[in-house]
């Protein structure tokens, strides 16, 4: 009886002989190859994922992320933090920035017409040629702000703080500056035609050549102001304090100066024609022959005759 084939069932008692060593080697080789293929596939997949992840991370790190400053400089809401932001030439018409922080912001040429800046902090802001006409700025802080050539026509600046602000050649016709604080501000050549400055504090202000025709300065503090060559024709200065003010060649024609304090004022060449000086305090003031009182109501109520130059005749 020939020996049974290796690896096949034997007719004797149904036993199966184990594979020959050569067959085992072939099986092991096939198993190892399959395992290596699977391991290689896993390795390649892992490498691909790592590469993709690394590329994503690298791309993300390379992409410029928006800065916090850039983000906050585009948020125009009440109480916004816009300090130091560059808002040059921006159109912010009717925007509500009440209570906003705009300290040292650049608002050059910006349009803030009808904007709400109530209580906003604009100290040291650059507002050169800004347009804030008809804007609301009550109780706003504008200390040391640059408002040169700014348009503030009809703006509400009541109780605002403009201490040491630069308003050179600014436009403020019909602006409401009631109770505003303008100590040491520069209003040289400014246009304040018809402006409301009732009980405003203008101590030490430079108002040379300013246009204050028809302005309301009742009860205003004008101690030590420079109003030389300014025009206050028809202005209202009842109870105003002009102690030690420079009024050289200032025009007060038809102005109301009832009970005003003019003591120590310097007024050579000043025009008081048809003005009302009833009850005014003129102790220690300086006038000259060219100071005109023609038609004025003098401190004692009498009318100064023509020509009344250098004194009320």
List the helices and strands and how they pair.
Elements: H1 21-62, H2 68-72
Spell out the key features of this protein.
single chain, elongated, mainly alpha, 313 residues
Please tell me the overall pLDDT. 87
Pattern of helices and strands: HH
Principal-axes geometry comes out as elongated
Secondary structure category: mainly alpha
- Indicate the proportion of strand residues: under 5%
Low-pLDDT ranges: 4-16, 21-27, 55-64
| Cα end-to-end separation | 166 Å
Say how many strands there are: 0
The largest sheet, given as strand count, sense and whether it forms a barrel, is: none
Question: What proportion of the residues is helical, as a percent range?
Answer: 10-25%
Radius of gyration, CA atoms, in whole angstroms? 43 Å
User: How many helices does DSSP assign?
Assistant: 2
């Amino acid at each position: 009886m020939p020996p049974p084939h290796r690896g096949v069932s034997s007719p004797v008692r149904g036993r199966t002989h184990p594979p020959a060593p050569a067959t085992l080697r072939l099986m092991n080789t096939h198993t190892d190859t399959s395992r290596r293929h699977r391991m290689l596939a896993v390795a390649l997949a892992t490498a691909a994922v790592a590469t993709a992840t690394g590329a994503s991370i690298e791309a993300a790190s390379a992409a410029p992320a928006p800065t916090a400053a850039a983000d906050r400089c585009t948020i125009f809401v009440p109480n916004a933090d816009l300090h130091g932001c560059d808002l040059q030439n921006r159109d912010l018409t009717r925007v509500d920035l009440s209570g906003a922080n705009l300290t040292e912001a650049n608002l050059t040429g910006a349009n803030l017409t009808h904007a709400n800046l109530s209580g906003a902090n604009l100290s040291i802001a650059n507002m050169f040629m800004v347009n804030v006409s008809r804007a609301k700025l009550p109780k706003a802080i504008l200390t040391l702000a640059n408002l040169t050539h700014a348009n503030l026509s009809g703006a509400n600046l009541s109780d605002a703080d403009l201490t040491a602000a630069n308003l050179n050649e600014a436009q403020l016709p019909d602006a409401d500056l009631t109770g505003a604080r303008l100590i040491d501000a520069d209003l040289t050549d400014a246009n304040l035609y018809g402006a409301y400055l009732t009980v405003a504090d203008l101590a030490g202000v430079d108002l040379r050549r300013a246009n204050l025709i028809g302005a309301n300065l009742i009860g205003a503090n004008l101690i030590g102001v420079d109003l030389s060559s300014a025009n206050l024709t028809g202005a209202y200065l009842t109870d105003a304090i002009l102690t030690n003010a420079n009024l050289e060649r200032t025009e007060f024609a038809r102005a109301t100066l009832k009970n005003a304090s003019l003591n120590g004022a310097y007024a050579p060449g000043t025009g008081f024609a048809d003005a009302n000086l009833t009850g005014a305090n003129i102790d220690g003031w300086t006038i000259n022959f060219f100071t005109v009182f023609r038609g004025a109501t003098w401190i004692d109520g009498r009318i100064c005759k023509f020509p009344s130059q250098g004194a009320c005749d």
